[in-house]
Design goal:
The chain has 331 residues and is of the alpha/beta class. It has two domains: 152 residues, ATPase, nucleotide binding domain (Nucleotidyltransferase, domain 5), CATH 3.30.420; 158 residues, 2-Layer Sandwich (Nucleotidyltransferase, domain 5), CATH 3.30.420.40. It is 43% helix and 21% strand. The radius of gyration is 20 Å and the shape is globular. Fe (ii) ion binds next to helix 3.
Amino acid sequence: MLILGIESTAHTLGVSIVERHGERYVVRSNEKRVYTTHGEGLIPAKISEHHISVIDELFRDALGKASVMLDDIDLVAYSIGPGIGHTLRIGAAIARSIALQRGKPVVGVNHCIAHLEVGRVLTPARDPVLLYVSGANTQIIAFDAGRYRIFGETLDMGVGNFIDSIGRLLGIGFPAGPRIEELARKGERYIELPYTIKGMDISLGGLYTNIKQKIELKKYRIEDLAYSIQETVFAMLIEAAERAMAHTGKDELLLGGGVACNSRLQEMARIMTKERGAKSFAPEKQFLLDNAAMIAITGGMMHAAGVQPLKPRDMIIKPYQRTEEVEVIWR
Ligand code: ATP
Ligand code: FE2
Protein backbone atom coordinates (compact mmCIF):
# COMPACT_ATOMS: atom_id res chain seq x y z
CA MET A 1 0.00 0.00 0.00
CA LEU A 2 1.30 3.47 -0.94
CA ILE A 3 0.60 6.34 1.42
CA LEU A 4 1.03 10.03 0.65
CA GLY A 5 1.75 12.11 3.76
CA ILE A 6 1.34 15.88 4.01
CA GLU A 7 2.78 17.93 6.89
CA SER A 8 1.90 21.62 7.29
CA THR A 9 1.53 22.46 10.99
CA ALA A 10 4.06 25.31 10.95
CA HIS A 11 7.26 26.41 9.18
CA THR A 12 7.73 23.10 7.32
CA LEU A 13 5.71 21.97 4.33
CA GLY A 14 6.43 18.28 3.76
CA VAL A 15 5.29 15.65 1.28
CA SER A 16 6.29 12.01 1.65
CA ILE A 17 5.57 8.68 0.01
CA VAL A 18 5.65 5.68 2.33
CA GLU A 19 5.07 2.06 1.43
CA ARG A 20 3.35 -0.16 3.97
CA HIS A 21 3.93 -3.90 4.14
CA GLY A 22 1.93 -5.13 7.12
CA GLU A 23 3.63 -3.56 10.14
CA ARG A 24 6.72 -2.58 8.18
CA TYR A 25 7.06 0.82 6.56
CA VAL A 26 9.50 1.85 3.84
CA VAL A 27 10.01 5.58 3.33
CA ARG A 28 10.28 6.06 -0.44
CA SER A 29 10.60 9.85 -0.25
CA ASN A 30 10.47 12.47 2.49
CA GLU A 31 10.66 15.93 0.95
CA LYS A 32 10.31 19.24 2.73
CA ARG A 33 10.69 22.95 2.33
CA VAL A 34 11.32 24.97 5.47
CA TYR A 35 10.54 28.65 5.88
CA THR A 36 13.51 30.29 7.56
CA THR A 37 14.35 33.89 8.49
CA HIS A 38 17.39 35.97 9.34
CA GLY A 39 16.80 37.70 12.64
CA GLU A 40 13.02 38.15 12.70
CA GLY A 41 10.30 35.81 14.01
CA LEU A 42 7.72 33.74 12.16
CA ILE A 43 4.69 35.53 10.69
CA PRO A 44 1.84 33.11 9.79
CA ALA A 45 0.84 34.94 6.57
CA LYS A 46 4.44 34.89 5.34
CA ILE A 47 4.86 31.19 6.11
CA SER A 48 1.69 30.35 4.15
CA GLU A 49 2.91 32.43 1.22
CA HIS A 50 6.13 30.42 1.27
CA HIS A 51 4.30 27.08 1.46
CA ILE A 52 1.99 27.92 -1.43
CA SER A 53 4.94 28.98 -3.59
CA VAL A 54 6.69 25.60 -3.17
CA ILE A 55 3.75 23.14 -3.40
CA ASP A 56 4.25 22.26 -7.07
CA GLU A 57 7.96 21.51 -6.94
CA LEU A 58 7.57 19.70 -3.62
CA PHE A 59 4.97 17.32 -5.07
CA ARG A 60 7.08 16.78 -8.17
CA ASP A 61 10.12 15.93 -6.02
CA ALA A 62 8.28 13.65 -3.59
CA LEU A 63 6.50 11.68 -6.33
CA GLY A 64 9.57 11.69 -8.58
CA LYS A 65 11.99 10.43 -5.92
CA ALA A 66 9.54 7.65 -5.02
CA SER A 67 8.96 6.92 -8.74
CA VAL A 68 5.19 6.96 -8.34
CA MET A 69 2.29 8.88 -9.89
CA LEU A 70 -0.49 10.48 -7.90
CA ASP A 71 -2.88 7.83 -9.24
CA ASP A 72 -0.76 5.04 -7.67
CA ILE A 73 -1.44 6.38 -4.17
CA ASP A 74 -3.80 4.29 -2.00
CA LEU A 75 -4.20 6.61 0.99
CA VAL A 76 -3.62 10.28 1.81
CA ALA A 77 -2.71 11.35 5.36
CA TYR A 78 -2.49 15.03 6.38
CA SER A 79 -1.71 16.68 9.69
CA ILE A 80 -5.01 17.88 11.13
CA GLY A 81 -3.44 19.68 14.15
CA PRO A 82 -2.23 21.07 16.45
CA GLY A 83 -0.53 23.95 14.69
CA ILE A 84 -0.88 27.32 12.99
CA GLY A 85 -4.32 27.70 11.35
CA HIS A 86 -2.94 29.49 8.27
CA THR A 87 -0.54 26.70 7.36
CA LEU A 88 -2.69 23.74 8.49
CA ARG A 89 -5.36 24.93 6.06
CA ILE A 90 -2.92 24.50 3.15
CA GLY A 91 -2.32 20.80 3.93
CA ALA A 92 -6.04 20.16 4.48
CA ALA A 93 -6.90 21.87 1.18
CA ILE A 94 -4.36 19.75 -0.73
CA ALA A 95 -5.76 16.56 0.83
CA ARG A 96 -9.31 17.59 0.02
CA SER A 97 -8.45 18.41 -3.61
CA ILE A 98 -6.82 15.00 -4.07
CA ALA A 99 -9.86 13.33 -2.50
CA LEU A 100 -12.28 15.23 -4.73
CA GLN A 101 -10.29 14.90 -7.95
CA ARG A 102 -8.91 11.37 -7.63
CA GLY A 103 -11.30 9.78 -5.14
CA LYS A 104 -8.53 8.79 -2.72
CA PRO A 105 -9.33 7.98 0.94
CA VAL A 106 -8.01 10.57 3.40
CA VAL A 107 -7.23 10.42 7.13
CA GLY A 108 -6.36 13.33 9.46
CA VAL A 109 -3.34 12.72 11.72
CA ASN A 110 -2.44 14.31 15.06
CA HIS A 111 1.02 15.83 14.61
CA CYS A 112 2.28 15.10 18.16
CA ILE A 113 1.23 11.45 18.02
CA ALA A 114 2.98 11.16 14.64
CA HIS A 115 6.27 12.24 16.29
CA LEU A 116 5.91 9.23 18.60
CA GLU A 117 4.67 6.69 16.06
CA VAL A 118 7.54 7.35 13.65
CA GLY A 119 9.95 6.46 16.47
CA ARG A 120 8.09 3.22 17.23
CA VAL A 121 8.39 2.20 13.59
CA LEU A 122 11.93 3.37 12.83
CA THR A 123 13.69 2.56 16.14
CA PRO A 124 13.51 -0.57 18.36
CA ALA A 125 11.30 1.32 20.90
CA ARG A 126 7.96 -0.47 21.40
CA ASP A 127 6.17 1.16 24.32
CA PRO A 128 8.22 4.23 25.14
CA VAL A 129 7.78 7.43 27.10
CA LEU A 130 8.16 10.13 24.44
CA LEU A 131 10.04 13.30 25.26
CA TYR A 132 8.61 15.50 22.52
CA VAL A 133 10.55 18.73 22.29
CA SER A 134 9.89 20.96 19.32
CA GLY A 135 9.18 24.60 18.58
CA ALA A 136 5.65 24.97 19.87
CA ASN A 137 5.39 21.76 21.88
CA THR A 138 7.12 20.36 24.92
CA GLN A 139 5.33 17.29 26.19
CA ILE A 140 6.05 14.00 27.88
CA ILE A 141 3.65 11.50 26.34
CA ALA A 142 3.00 7.82 27.00
CA PHE A 143 0.34 5.29 26.07
CA ASP A 144 -2.02 4.52 28.89
CA ALA A 145 -5.57 3.10 28.92
CA GLY A 146 -6.29 3.43 25.20
CA ARG A 147 -4.90 6.92 24.64
CA TYR A 148 -1.66 8.81 24.36
CA ARG A 149 -1.62 10.86 27.53
CA ILE A 150 0.40 13.90 28.42
CA PHE A 151 2.18 13.24 31.70
CA GLY A 152 4.10 16.48 31.76
CA GLU A 153 4.44 19.57 29.64
CA THR A 154 5.65 23.12 29.57
CA LEU A 155 3.43 25.51 31.47
CA ASP A 156 4.28 28.38 29.12
CA MET A 157 6.50 28.28 26.04
CA GLY A 158 7.81 25.31 24.04
CA VAL A 159 11.54 24.61 24.39
CA GLY A 160 12.22 25.28 20.68
CA ASN A 161 10.36 28.60 20.77
CA PHE A 162 12.25 29.46 23.94
CA ILE A 163 15.59 28.76 22.25
CA ASP A 164 14.49 30.65 19.13
CA SER A 165 13.41 33.67 21.26
CA ILE A 166 16.84 33.73 22.88
CA GLY A 167 18.25 33.49 19.36
CA ARG A 168 16.27 36.57 18.41
CA LEU A 169 17.74 38.48 21.37
CA LEU A 170 21.18 37.48 20.08
CA GLY A 171 20.26 38.28 16.45
CA ILE A 172 20.82 34.69 15.31
CA GLY A 173 17.66 34.15 13.22
CA PHE A 174 15.43 31.10 12.90
CA PRO A 175 16.00 28.30 13.78
CA ALA A 176 18.43 29.14 16.58
CA GLY A 177 18.81 25.63 18.06
CA PRO A 178 21.76 24.42 15.96
CA ARG A 179 23.64 27.70 16.43
CA ILE A 180 23.10 27.72 20.22
CA GLU A 181 24.37 24.14 20.30
CA GLU A 182 27.51 25.22 18.45
CA LEU A 183 28.07 28.16 20.83
CA ALA A 184 27.45 25.91 23.86
CA ARG A 185 30.33 23.63 22.81
CA LYS A 186 32.65 26.58 23.38
CA GLY A 187 31.22 27.31 26.83
CA GLU A 188 33.71 27.17 29.68
CA ARG A 189 31.79 28.34 32.70
CA TYR A 190 28.37 27.48 34.12
CA ILE A 191 26.30 30.55 34.92
CA GLU A 192 23.66 29.95 37.59
CA LEU A 193 20.13 30.08 36.08
CA PRO A 194 16.64 29.50 37.53
CA TYR A 195 15.59 25.84 37.43
CA THR A 196 11.79 25.47 37.35
CA ILE A 197 10.19 22.07 37.41
CA LYS A 198 6.90 21.22 39.08
CA GLY A 199 6.21 17.51 39.18
CA MET A 200 6.46 16.51 35.54
CA ASP A 201 5.82 20.04 34.22
CA ILE A 202 8.40 22.66 33.44
CA SER A 203 8.24 26.43 33.02
CA LEU A 204 10.53 28.60 30.89
CA GLY A 205 9.07 32.13 31.14
CA GLY A 206 11.06 33.16 34.21
CA LEU A 207 14.23 31.69 32.79
CA TYR A 208 13.70 33.66 29.57
CA THR A 209 13.40 36.96 31.47
CA ASN A 210 16.48 36.11 33.52
CA ILE A 211 18.56 35.38 30.41
CA LYS A 212 17.27 38.50 28.66
CA GLN A 213 18.55 40.58 31.58
CA LYS A 214 21.89 38.78 31.51
CA ILE A 215 22.27 39.41 27.76
CA GLU A 216 21.46 43.12 28.24
CA LEU A 217 24.09 43.40 30.96
CA LYS A 218 26.71 42.36 28.38
CA LYS A 219 28.73 40.94 31.27
CA TYR A 220 28.71 37.31 30.19
CA ARG A 221 30.29 35.44 27.29
CA ILE A 222 27.60 34.31 24.85
CA GLU A 223 29.22 30.85 24.70
CA ASP A 224 28.96 30.48 28.50
CA LEU A 225 25.33 31.58 28.39
CA ALA A 226 24.50 29.11 25.59
CA TYR A 227 26.21 26.33 27.53
CA SER A 228 24.39 27.19 30.77
CA ILE A 229 21.03 27.45 28.98
CA GLN A 230 21.45 23.96 27.50
CA GLU A 231 22.63 22.40 30.77
CA THR A 232 19.76 23.93 32.75
CA VAL A 233 16.86 23.42 30.36
CA PHE A 234 17.86 19.93 29.26
CA ALA A 235 18.34 18.84 32.89
CA MET A 236 14.76 20.00 33.58
CA LEU A 237 13.47 18.00 30.60
CA ILE A 238 15.39 14.86 31.52
CA GLU A 239 14.27 15.08 35.16
CA ALA A 240 10.61 15.37 34.08
CA ALA A 241 11.03 12.47 31.63
CA GLU A 242 12.62 10.32 34.32
CA ARG A 243 9.69 10.97 36.65
CA ALA A 244 7.26 9.92 33.90
CA MET A 245 9.26 6.72 33.35
CA ALA A 246 9.19 5.93 37.07
CA HIS A 247 5.47 6.74 37.26
CA THR A 248 4.42 4.64 34.24
CA GLY A 249 6.94 1.85 34.86
CA LYS A 250 8.12 2.05 31.23
CA ASP A 251 11.75 1.34 30.42
CA GLU A 252 12.15 3.04 27.05
CA LEU A 253 12.63 6.73 26.38
CA LEU A 254 12.04 7.98 22.86
CA LEU A 255 13.07 11.43 21.67
CA GLY A 256 11.05 13.40 19.14
CA GLY A 257 10.83 16.95 17.79
CA GLY A 258 13.47 19.30 16.41
CA VAL A 259 15.17 20.07 19.73
CA ALA A 260 15.91 16.34 20.06
CA CYS A 261 18.49 16.82 17.26
CA ASN A 262 20.69 18.33 19.97
CA SER A 263 23.54 15.98 20.80
CA ARG A 264 23.86 17.17 24.39
CA LEU A 265 20.18 16.41 25.03
CA GLN A 266 20.63 12.97 23.42
CA GLU A 267 23.67 12.37 25.62
CA MET A 268 21.78 13.32 28.80
CA ALA A 269 18.93 10.98 27.76
CA ARG A 270 21.43 8.13 27.34
CA ILE A 271 23.03 8.77 30.75
CA MET A 272 19.69 8.97 32.59
CA THR A 273 18.24 5.83 30.98
CA LYS A 274 21.44 3.84 31.49
CA GLU A 275 21.44 4.71 35.20
CA ARG A 276 17.93 3.26 35.53
CA GLY A 277 18.61 0.15 33.43
CA ALA A 278 16.43 1.54 30.64
CA LYS A 279 17.11 2.48 27.02
CA SER A 280 16.86 5.67 25.02
CA PHE A 281 16.11 5.96 21.30
CA ALA A 282 15.94 8.69 18.68
CA PRO A 283 15.13 8.31 14.98
CA GLU A 284 17.47 10.01 12.52
CA LYS A 285 17.31 13.78 12.17
CA GLN A 286 15.00 13.98 9.13
CA PHE A 287 12.34 12.18 11.22
CA LEU A 288 12.94 14.24 14.39
CA LEU A 289 12.23 17.54 12.71
CA ASP A 290 8.77 18.13 11.27
CA ASN A 291 8.34 15.77 8.33
CA ALA A 292 5.60 14.20 6.25
CA ALA A 293 6.86 10.60 6.55
CA MET A 294 5.68 10.48 10.18
CA ILE A 295 2.23 11.65 9.06
CA ALA A 296 2.10 8.99 6.33
CA ILE A 297 3.22 6.24 8.75
CA THR A 298 0.67 7.19 11.43
CA GLY A 299 -2.04 7.49 8.76
CA GLY A 300 -1.12 3.98 7.60
CA MET A 301 -1.46 2.59 11.13
CA MET A 302 -4.82 4.30 11.60
CA HIS A 303 -6.16 3.06 8.27
CA ALA A 304 -4.96 -0.52 8.86
CA ALA A 305 -6.73 -0.53 12.24
CA GLY A 306 -10.01 0.51 10.65
CA VAL A 307 -10.14 4.29 11.21
CA GLN A 308 -12.71 5.44 8.65
CA PRO A 309 -11.58 7.83 5.90
CA LEU A 310 -12.91 11.38 6.28
CA LYS A 311 -15.73 12.77 4.17
CA PRO A 312 -14.52 15.85 2.24
CA ARG A 313 -16.54 18.20 4.48
CA ASP A 314 -14.80 16.69 7.52
CA MET A 315 -11.30 17.34 6.13
CA ILE A 316 -11.00 20.25 8.49
CA ILE A 317 -8.18 21.48 10.71
CA LYS A 318 -7.90 21.29 14.49
CA PRO A 319 -5.31 23.91 15.47
CA TYR A 320 -5.82 23.22 19.19
CA GLN A 321 -6.24 19.44 19.13
CA ARG A 322 -4.90 17.87 22.32
CA THR A 323 -3.00 14.59 22.26
CA GLU A 324 -5.44 12.79 24.55
CA GLU A 325 -8.47 13.79 22.44
CA VAL A 326 -7.46 11.18 19.87
CA GLU A 327 -8.94 7.73 20.29
CA VAL A 328 -6.08 5.34 19.59
CA ILE A 329 -7.63 2.18 18.13
CA TRP A 330 -4.43 1.07 16.39
CA ARG A 331 -2.64 -0.08 19.53
P1 ATP B 1 5.89 21.62 16.49
O1 ATP B 1 6.33 20.20 16.40
O2 ATP B 1 5.52 21.99 17.84
O3 ATP B 1 4.89 21.99 15.44
P2 ATP B 1 8.06 22.90 15.19
O4 ATP B 1 7.33 22.70 13.95
O5 ATP B 1 8.61 24.24 15.44
O6 ATP B 1 7.12 22.55 16.34
P3 ATP B 1 10.36 21.05 14.74
O7 ATP B 1 10.55 21.18 13.27
O8 ATP B 1 10.18 19.69 15.28
O9 ATP B 1 9.22 21.88 15.41
O10 ATP B 1 11.61 21.73 15.47
C1 ATP B 1 12.06 23.03 15.24
C2 ATP B 1 12.73 23.53 16.50
O11 ATP B 1 13.87 22.71 16.80
C3 ATP B 1 13.24 24.94 16.39
O12 ATP B 1 12.77 25.66 17.50
C4 ATP B 1 14.76 24.80 16.41
O13 ATP B 1 15.44 25.87 17.01
C5 ATP B 1 14.93 23.53 17.23
N1 ATP B 1 16.20 22.84 16.95
C6 ATP B 1 16.65 22.33 15.77
N2 ATP B 1 17.89 21.82 15.90
C7 ATP B 1 18.24 21.99 17.20
C8 ATP B 1 19.41 21.69 17.98
N3 ATP B 1 20.47 21.13 17.43
N4 ATP B 1 19.41 22.03 19.28
C9 ATP B 1 18.34 22.61 19.85
N5 ATP B 1 17.21 22.93 19.18
C10 ATP B 1 17.16 22.63 17.88
FE1 FE2 C 1 6.61 18.88 15.19
